[in-house]
Amino acid sequence: MLKVYLSGEIHTDWREDVKSACKGLKIEWFGPVTDHAASDDCGVEIFGPEPDKFWHDRKGAALNAIRTRSGIEGCDLLVVCFGEKYKQWNAAFDAGYAAALGKPIIVLQPEDHDHALKEVDAAANAVARTPGEVARALRYVLTGTL
What we know:
Protein name: YtoQ family protein
Shape: globular
Distance between the termini: 19 Å
Order of helices and strands: EHEHHEHEHEH
Strand content: 15-25%
CATH topology of the domain at 2-32 and 74-143: Rossmann fold
CATH class of the domain at 2-32 and 74-143: Alpha Beta
Strand order of the largest sheet: 2-1-3-4-5
Pfam families: Nuc_deoxyri_tr3
Number of strands: 5
InterPro entries: YtoQ_family_protein
CATH architecture of the domain at 2-32 and 74-143: 3-Layer(aba) Sandwich
């Protein structure tokens, strides 16, 4: 069973595309909370309100870091997606954390991000352009077949 952590942008259905294309493979999937409001507000919902937006965000980020760190530390491989619409600073952080832990990394990014992500790409084992390429890479890693 390959444990794969799906990190990165949460505004498209790329995760479902990868999972669907990997149907039948022995993969256990992990990832962040993809409900944007829940992810942003988890800290204040659980630990109480914050009048200052910095501390509001800090509570949520600290709580989400427990899930993220545990998921990346426990995974066999990280797939990190950088989408087109937003800057995913957290995704770059996840990739750096995985690289520091010696985890294999597959980056999913559009071509126009190549220059901005050159350091992330240099630390990765593979760079894919589509969820289908990610799925084909995972299939190859698990089965050795194309």
